[in-house]
Amino acid sequence: MSKKLGIIAGGGDIPKALIAKCKEQNRDYFVVAIEGNADKNLVDETVPHIWIRIGQAGTGFKKLAEEKVEEVVMIGTIRRPSFKDLIPDLRTTAFFTRLGFKSIGDDGLLRALVKELEGDGLVVRGIQEVMPEILIREGVLGKVTPSKQALADIERAVEVATELGRLDVGQAVIVQQGLVLGVEGIEGTGELIRRCGAYKRKGDGGVLVKIRKPQQDMRIDLPTIGDRTVISAYQSGLSGIVLHAGNGLIANEKETIELADKYGIFVMGINPADYYKGA
């Protein structure tokens, strides 16, 4: 019998898909939904849950213990928090105090959070351990294939994304005709795509590449795409979207690929080492 699962839910479509998976499998679960991030329609009266601010992590931990949760999945995007979001409860204050004031990137912060959860006796699982079908497979997924220029841009983007990942900066890069139009920072992939639309040159459209950071824990914050990524790419005039095969997540795969085909955008899973030997 599966152990009770705690779902710490940020934004995007995957948290809802995970809830549906638990219902399908009759698995006991409890959702901790992050205010300002998780979809307002994520939960209803049929879903056991609590809403918390980012600064109320201690409240969330306490609720997971009360619910006798044994395993946890952290999934979904988390936007840059406001000051109000960050006002901490006592447990969260102690957590930040232990981290100290040293500079720490997103990956380091998430690893510290995993350690905190494990310290409470919880087992942190990757979404792919519960929903293996959500990992993107290698190769072109739809009807649209990359051009010769797009393949060259993928090679350049993988090189840049790999080195930035080592610095814990971001996962995504957009390259067009060999030119790096932008790299992902704290703003997230959607905003990266939007602003790069203004820099795009005439001719063959740019390529968005998202790969897992070399040091990244497979249980947290894997690179993710979905139909919203496709819509943003189309609006900014990009020609393709590339994700780390076996290490990246594709939400609503069927709908996402159908939409990409409709807009003439290729979607592809790759092994970064095939494009950059330093990966």
Protein model, in words:
- The chain is α/β, with parallel strands linked by helices and 279 residues long.
- The chain has 2 domains: 5-132, Rossmann fold; 135-274, LpxI C-terminal catalytic domain (Cytidine Deaminase, domain 2, 3-Layer(aba) Sandwich).
- The protein is 36% helix and 19% strand.
- The protein has a 6-stranded mixed sheet with strand order 6-13-11-9-7-8. Strands 3-2-1-4-5 form a 5-stranded parallel sheet, with helices on both faces.
- Strand 7 and strand 8 (179-183) form a beta hairpin.
- Helix 9 packs parallel to helix 10 (253-263).
Averaged pLDDT: 89
CATH class of the largest domain: Alpha Beta
CATH topology of the largest domain: Cytidine Deaminase, domain 2
Structural domain count: 2
Stretches with pLDDT under 50, minimum 5 residues: none
Structural class: alpha/beta
CA-CA gap between termini? 39 Å
Features:
Rossmann fold; 36% helix; five-stranded parallel beta sheet; 10 helices; six-stranded mixed beta sheet; 19% strand; 279 residues; 13 strands; Cytidine Deaminase, domain 2; single chain; alpha/beta
Q: What layout of secondary structure does this protein have?
A:
Blueprint: E1 5-9, H1 14-24, E2 29-34, E3 49-52, H2 57-66, E4 71-75, H3 83-86, H4 90-99, H5 106-119, E5 123-125, H6 127-130, E6 139-140, H7 148-166, E7 172-176, E8 179-183, H8 189-196, E9 207-210, E10 224-225, H9 227-235, E11 240-244, E12 249-250, H10 253-263, E13 266-270
Parallel strand pairs: 1-2, 1-4, 2-3, 4-5, 9-11, 10-12, 11-13
Antiparallel strand pairs: 6-13, 7-8, 7-9
